[in-house]
Specification:
51% helix, Rossmann fold, 284 residues, seven-stranded parallel sheet, 2 domains, alpha/beta
């Protein structure tokens, strides 16, 4: 039997720990056994029980206080993650080996870990060797994504992680419960975006021809390959949580030995659920 993993990623403040806590509670309500592993050596508080905590291996504060190292916060975190990559045996011992494991890995938010450092890629490869089916879950704060410039920035961050890790990835807009009705209606267009309309919105503001050309190229690339779309995540709405979980389950083929799902019909059902979510919440 395979094992399953969500690699929960995203910028600092995007709601990774809240996502893990919410998803853990949701799965427990469904009778599904899910565990959480904290991989952020700079974490302070989180509202969920963990089966393993990287801070038991190494902690950023200890590294920063070491006079022989003299690292700042970012350098200390990178050092911790590289030390972790050299000690995957600690993680293996912490996880044990139980068939049908389903684990959420709450990851650090520093984008350089996914863009030009090999640590997270090494983690993915190690998990795959341990027979995990891994899905990347990339979070962005919906309050940050309501403008076209910021949206394009969020897409590039998600795309960087996807290309670097080379695993299936679900992209999520978090904190939908904090948006006003007007903002929810506005942000719906960003979930499955028309990049050419984004080009018009962005280039109308830009004064520099050079940046206009760059923006058009980026938007065109994203649109041509259709590589990034987002799902809404409202922690106060069970239907929203379930939509996200269904997408992830399909991606990692969770429970495929238990029941057969028609892929095409299932995809149509999920899209309909997303549309229904917005109709219900915008019209409230």
């Amino acid at each position: 039997m395979p094992r399953y993993a969500q690699l929960v990623m995203g910028p600092a403040g995007s709601g990774k720990s809240t996502y893990c806590s919410t998803m853990l509670q949701h799965c427990e309500a469904l009778g599904r056994a899910v565990q959480v592993v904290n991989l952020d050596p700079a974490a302070e508080l989180f509202s969920y029980p963990v089966m393993a905590d990287i801070r038991e291996l190494i902690e950023v504060d200890d590294v920063m206080e070491d006079d022989s190292l003299r690292f700042g916060p970012n350098g200390g975190l990178v050092f911790c993650m590289e030390y972790f990559a050299n000690n995957f045996n600690w993680l293996e011992e912490s996880l044990g080996h139980v068939e049908d494991d389903y684990i959420l890995f709450d990851c650090p938010g520093q984008i350089e870990l996914y863009t030009h450092l090999p640590v997270m890629k090494q983690l993915v490869e190690q998990l795959q060797q341990w027979e995990f089916r891994v899905c990347g879950v990339f979070l962005v704060d919906s309050q940050f994504m309501v403008e076209s410039f910021k949206f394009i920035s969020g897409i590039l961050a998600a795309l960087s992680a996807m290309i670097s890790l080379e695993i299936p990835q679900i992209n999520i807009m978090t904190k939908m419960d904090l948006l006003s009705k007007k903002a929810k209606k506005e942000i719906e267009k960003y979930l499955d975006p028309d990049m050419y309309s984004m080009i018009e919105d962005s280039t109308n503001i830009l004064k520099s021809k050079r940046f206009k050309k760059l923006t058009k190229s980026i938007c065109g690339l994203i649109d041509d390959y259709g590589m990034v779309r987002f799902l809404p995540f409202d922690r106060s709405d069970e239907e929203s949580i379930n939509i996200v979980l269904q997408h992830i389950d399909t991606t990692i083929q969770y429970g495929e030995d238990l029941e057969f799902k028609e892929p095409k019909e299932y995809e149509e059902d999920k899209s309909a659920l997303v549309d229904e979510y917005f109709q219900d919440h915008v019209n409230e």
